[in-house]
Amino acid sequence: MAAGTPVAITSEDVRGSVGDTVTVAINIAIEPPKLGQTMDSLQFVLEYDSAALEFVGIQELSQDRMNILGVQYICNVTTKTGSVAYTAASSDGCSGSGVLMHVRFKILSAVSTMLVLKKVSYSFVTASSGAQKSYTGGTINLGRITGQSVPTTIPPFTSAPVNSQPPAAVATDEPRFPVTEVTLSPGSSPLPEPNNGDSDVLAYIVFGLFIVVALLICVVLTLMIVRRGKNKARIKYFEDDEEDEEEEEILTAPEEEPYEEAPPEEEPIDEEDQPPITIVRRGKK
Questions:
Q1: Count of H helices and E strands in the chain?
Q2: What would you report as the CA-atom Rg of the chain, rounded to the nearest whole angstrom?
Q3: What is the SS3 assignment for 106?
Q4: What are phi and psi of 76, to 5 degrees?
Q5: CATH hierarchy code of domain 7-148
Q6: Segment (H or E) for 76
Q7: Cα 256–258–259 angle (5° rounding)?
Q8: What is the pTM of this model?
Q9: Which of 21, 206, 254, 264 sits between 20 and 30 A of 191, alpha carbons compared?
Q10: Across the strands, what pairs with 41?
């Protein structure tokens, strides 16, 4: 409490592990300067390190009312990051000392941080005369909240005891099948040995090879049939092409008839114009 101020507000140091929610008790002691005066109003701003603490709430606050030293006050709380603004007022007023409130914080990191009250102001009123007097206390340093890291411990490994004794036989009423031994007569063939699975694997391999060879044969035959069909189609194509050429030659080049020259026309002979024919006979000497 600063000199000349009638109100003292304090708190103790608190410790906790990271992740825990701790409760800080803020105490108040009212020493009125004159007899018959009571505190009718109180206001302050509670500041804290938001990186190390998270504000959870005030326990005594019920909606907008709170009991301070047995007197009901009308309260208003406004929270921001790193600060809580608190205002309380009552016409009856209170006096004496005790717990003002319980503030709860969640520890976020393993550091030590201090709670600080700023803008602290309060007023007193005289019951007989109603005179009011205000005081301003300024800044008040409260206690510290220290966070501790949680040690990670690994429990020792304990092996379960191993029961080396064989399990006891359990008597049952179920009948058991009789075991008969087979004896071979002289001269008979021995019984086949039990199959250990090698012959089955060999049979699967042979069967798989047979299927692969059959598939290859089917593929080769299919290719041969397709190729033969293509060759037949090609031969048929050339034969049809030759027939088409012959038909075109017949249509485009018909046979020509042999050309016969017409005999020259004989001019009519005029007997009058012809000279007389003289016959000469020659004898041998």
A1: 1, 11
A2: 66
A3: strand
A4: -145, 125
A5: 2.60.40.680
A6: strand 71-80
A7: 115
A8: 0.51
A9: 206
A10: 89, 123
